[in-house]
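Researcher: Before we compare anything, I want clean individual predictions. No alignment, no superposition, just each chain on its own. First chain goes here; please echo the sequence and then give the structure tokens.
Model: Echoing the first chain and its structure:
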Amino acid sequence: MSAAISAAEKVDGFTRKSVRKAQRQRRSQGSSQFRGHGSQVELSPLPQLKDATSNEQQDLFCQKLQQCCILFDFMDSVSDLKSKEIKRATLNELVEYVSTNRGVIVESAYADIVKMISSNIFRTLPPSDNPDFDPEEDEPTLEASWPHIQLVYEFFLRFLESPDFQPSIAKRYIDQRFVQQLLELFDSEDPRERDFLKTVLHRIYGKFLGLRAFIRKQINNIFLRFIYETEHFNGVAELLEILGSIINGFALPLKAEHKQFLMKVLIPMHTAKGLALFHAQLAYCVVQFLEKDTTLTEPVIRGLLKFWPKTCSQKEVMFLGEIEEILDVIEPTQFKKIEEPLFKQISKCVSSSHFQVAERALYFWNNEYILSLIEENIDKILPIMFGSLYKISKEHWNPTIVALVYNVLKTLMEMNGKLFDDLTNSYKAERQSPCNYCSARPSQPYSHKKTAQQETTSSHSCLQAVGRAEKSK
């Protein structure tokens, strides 16, 4: 039981949080309780496989696999030291044995191999030490038994990648229940384990055709629970990375279930609080779908616009980056379908008081392909963007943004000078409508305002001034 919380800590939540963080830093390792109540097992070293005759090797191989099923408590750093070292050396020997020898993975060994792997890696993951765990700021709790578990994963991969490996035999042991347990391990806080799991699951997906639909369905379920229930799962980025490869291999035309997964799972995942941890992998999956089927572009962009962040500038920057990735692969015919709602949102982003959001939106005009799409559709896009751009050029607090806006205005003016002038005149005419100040001074109506022609000249002179400034640099 922890010590009583002081009165100051009860009043000040920040104090308690700092205390918890200090405690987490002191204990950076954790482990599930592998072994039963107080059972003491002492291992004895077996003969080396390389020293055994060919007739003895298979039996000795299975004995070593059975020996490695015995588990030890690594939270106690001084217990079973000799046995732990014997097991570590045996695991190393097994990894080398299956990597360098042919004909050693025979049918009779599959049961012992899968049993050894399952005994070591399948476990109930310990609860996080920190209920307020923030993967972006806090250090993860590392698996204390990693010296053994790492070697088991190494052995598992060598087993799956061996030329002797036969999926037709292995499927008796590597079944849906096995895969389900494997997927649950992706919630491990230890990034080293998740990295191994990613490779293992990818190999299983490639070799076991009968498990592919099940794997996709279970990943779908994990993501749905993550979005709508738990809002926490450590292995989202790794699972998305696997999905990126899976999507890349989808046959055309795409099945309805794959399209549904995109719209009902991947797009809503953009609302997650920890989006920054897996956004790169998520955006890659979305773009992979659009490269497979361009007709999905419109519903995807409309879905992103629906979930567009309202209060988180960091997320807005990520959304803008993903939109640019989508526009890089969009077909001109699909662009026409979404240009109006999309550029209305981009116009809002350009007007953002957060300079990183405005800057990221203005960088679209540095993309040659996007520029070509804008130029082809300038008659629709310029009227949407003009008001925001012109207002920012006069009022934005950040000089870098103002300079970028002048460059964008200059580019748009070069695309269609006549439309640019018409919009300038219309914009100034609206600003010249009678106001209270003018009504109070009828003898000098509008004397404090410039004429439309003067405003237009002022606008063009600003652009020319920017051009001269750039040349003088």
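Researcher: Okay. Second chain, same rules.
Model: Second chain and its structure:
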Amino acid sequence: MRPSRRPSAKVKPKLLSEERVSNKSVQELLAEGKIFGGCDKESKISNNSSSLVASDDSGQRDKILKPLAPVPYLSSEWAELAESISQNILNHNPNVHWDDIIGLDEAKQLIKEAVVYSTSYPELFSGILSPWKGLLLYGPPGTGKTLLAKAVATECRTTFFNISASSIVSKWRGDSEKLVRILFEMARFHAPSTIFLDELDSLMCQRGSDAGSTVGMGEHEGSRRIKTELLIQMDGLAKSEELVFVLAASNIPWELDHAMLRRLEKRILVDLPNFEARRKMFENLLPRKQKSSKPGVPQLLAQVDYDRVAEITEGYSGSDIRLVCKEAAMNS
């Protein structure tokens, strides 16, 4: 745990004894959470003027903590939660493009209309044409829902937050709600940004226990609180003009909470690949002649009847086809 802001004020004379820094500027830095304590080795005091100059890592940390400054009870606990999100979730460039995804032409076109065009041409989307704030990708597992979300982040040049249940669920009471709030605050600060909620059904299943029981009975209190906080933050996005998009993926959309489904206004089916898509996947993964980039490494020669393997793999997902190709390459 980092020291509180009070110890930081006590070590101020020691750190700034040779600097011409006014008390007012230091108090402002303390209020913004930019000075933590005497043990913080990432910060240093400038020797040429009257300002505090931070190292590259500290500057990145200050940028992460900036959206939390208005919170009146900002503490070292909130700072640590924000840093944990930045280390485990924040990805600036997934580097996945539309051409990297084989098939799914209809899904890609719908996503472009819903998200990409509104980012590229914001002047055209106002009033009833206001951009979608929530989008649900649903379909069988292994069909490319995560790849589509990363392609959105790359093509839109947005900051990408890849979220799963383990990222924002904590064993400590109250920390899960704080993590959700910090996540959305950081997304607003780094806008335009994309929050991808993978396996949404693990976070937002229907409230209550079994069908027919009283709503809320049999459900853990912590689970209800995190669902409520997610819904509140989604409402906040709908009422703002900031370019923050929420993409969610689920294999079982019928298990999702109805309140969350209403907030995910656009829903896109990511289905199993058709014959042409399967054939193209086999051609891409098992080419007839693959040149090796390293000298001395043998070339992979594939003798494959692409039409035949595409026909007999009906019902396979993209992930299944990749595993089949990997097994074939290992046995060749």
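Researcher: What stands out in the second chain?
Model: Confidence is low (pLDDT under 50) at residues 1-31, 33-57, 209-216. Additionally, The chain has three domains: 5-67, 91-269, 275-331.
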